Amino acid sequence: MIQPNHQLSPDRYFDPDPTVRRIARELYETVATLPLVCPHGHVDPRLLADEDATLGSPADLFILPDHYVLRMLYSQGIAMEAMGIAPLDGGLAETDHRKIWQLFADHFYLFRATPTGLWINDELQTIFGLTEPLNGKTAQPIYDQIADRLAAPEFRPRRLFEQFNVEVLCTTDAATDTLAHHQAIHASGWDGNILPTFRPDNLINLDSANWAQNIATLGDVSGIDVHNYVSFVQALEQRRAFFKQMGAVATDHGAQTPYTGELAPQAAETIFQQALSGAISADDAARFTGHMLIEMARMSIEDGLVMQLHPGSLRNHNARFITRFGRDRGDDIPVQTEYTRNLQPLLSKYGNDPRLTLILFTLDETTYSRELAPLAGHYPSLKLGPPWWFFDSYNGMQRFFEGVMETAGLYNTAGFNDDTRAFASIPARHDLWRRASANWLAGLVARHIVRAEDAGEMILDLAYRLPKRAYRLE
């Protein structure tokens, strides 16, 4: 197991008040080395399908796939081409990873006090044993040290998975995915617990890019001729069954809003046929997605898959940027989100059924105490996911604790998931959550709001037991 590097303060993230800090340290030490439960994330299963796979160069690991890094650099006027991102028109982009790394290191000061900066510093010290700060002067020696380590057998992804002490890692996979990489992991005999997650967004969101081709692929992989709404639902049910057979415990759904509303069968058929003909309106697409979220809840009751809903992101906000570099490059922006009325149709139909577990996330922190906590504090089907995306930070976690726990209660939350594509950042993200949790609980103990014994149980739940329970991994 990778041990913390002494260059990192053992009291990082803890309150400067000595009483709270002492209690936080004691609580944290009880969970610091517990296995990591990772029930939702975006690590590519290809990394773990081949025992000889590598993490590539330092630029491959820390820069090129990381939207957090790219969006910050772009915001400061640094050309995406200079960071190795090629434009769609065939224009040139930097291919020398040392030069890309140097540019990143020259500007690493931009990440001071951000979660990205904290995670990367943690990774550099804890995983790679580096003690020098990353900057323009140290860039090349640090590049060499990381590259040397990445070439070593113990830095293969499977070996790091074991060193990270990951108990379970769930990926996120398109509903049409054959799960070939998951099958390869199973066939290899390796005992790493890697599970798929069913994500049907590019099928149930009728305005998705290449939707018609996605439907054709759905027909191919399911063996069902998808020509109408009924066969569409049958194909989705077939895919869910396959994912569950492959070990899946959850589904994941992304939508701009959490709108739900049930359509009559004929209305659903009419909209589906319009989509097949290429004549779908934005309003009808939104109505269909809202209907299908209710259908997904119905299917979850029947097959037991936990349902996750991630709304509130206006994807690909920068039209000029998309035209030049394509979609999903870090220009997604949160929007104001309403849950109480939007979810009422789904919850009226299925929210009282304890067989459904619906985990809600938000990018609108104003909803914590006004909507999400009261909803989760009432409906037996609801759990609240941890701070997500822009708020997966120390401050975001503190705001979550303060906005949610008094009304929802700890046990209507789902603990932590790292929601990361950056494989090497997983331990740092979990460590931050465990420290933030310990610090929050220490404040409650110091103020005599909870007993020390109860806090000891609560930190175990926050660090380990809640996600296992919420995602039915026990």
- Which strand order does the major sheet show? 6-7-10-11
The number of domains? 2
CATH-defined fold name of the largest domain? TIM Barrel
Low-confidence stretches: 1-6
* Quaternary structure annotation: single chain
Query: Which radius of gyration do the C-alpha atoms yield?
Result: 23 Å
How large is the count of helical segments? 20
CATH superfamily of the largest domain: Metal-dependent hydrolases
Query: How many DSSP E strands?
Result: 11
Q: What is the CATH class name of the largest domain? A: Alpha Beta
- What percentage of the residues does DSSP assign to strands (E)? 5-15%
Query: Could you estimate the helical fraction of the residues in percent?
Result: 40-55%
Mean pLDDT across the residues is 96
Based on secondary structure, the structural category is alpha/beta
What CATH architecture of the largest domain would you give? Alpha-Beta Barrel
Distance between the termini: 23 Å
Which sheet architecture does the biggest sheet show?
4 strands, parallel
Could you explain the architecture of this structure?
The two termini are 23 Å apart. This protein has helices at residues 18-29, 46-49, 58-62, 67-75, 97-106, 115-127, 139-150, 157-163, 180-188, 201-204, 211-222, 229-245, 265-276, 282-303, 319-325, 344-350, 367-376, 394-408, 426-446, 452-470; strands spanning 36-38, 166-170, 173-174, 194-195, 198-199, 250-255, 306-311, 313-314, 333-334, 358-360, 382-384. The protein is globular, with a radius of gyration of 23 Å. Helix 13 crosses helix 14 (282-303) and helix 17 packs across helix 18 (394-408). The chain is built from 20 helices and eleven strands. The chain has two domains: 18-53 and 166-470, TIM Barrel (Alpha-Beta Barrel), CATH 3.20.20.140; 54-155, uronate isomerase, domain 2, chain A. Strands 6-7-10-11 form a four-stranded parallel β-sheet, covered by helices on one side. By secondary structure, it is of the alpha/beta class. Strand 10, helix 17 and strand 11 (382-384) form a beta-alpha-beta unit. The longest helix is centred in the middle third of the chain and has 22 residues, at 282-303. Mean pLDDT is 96; it is low at 1-6.
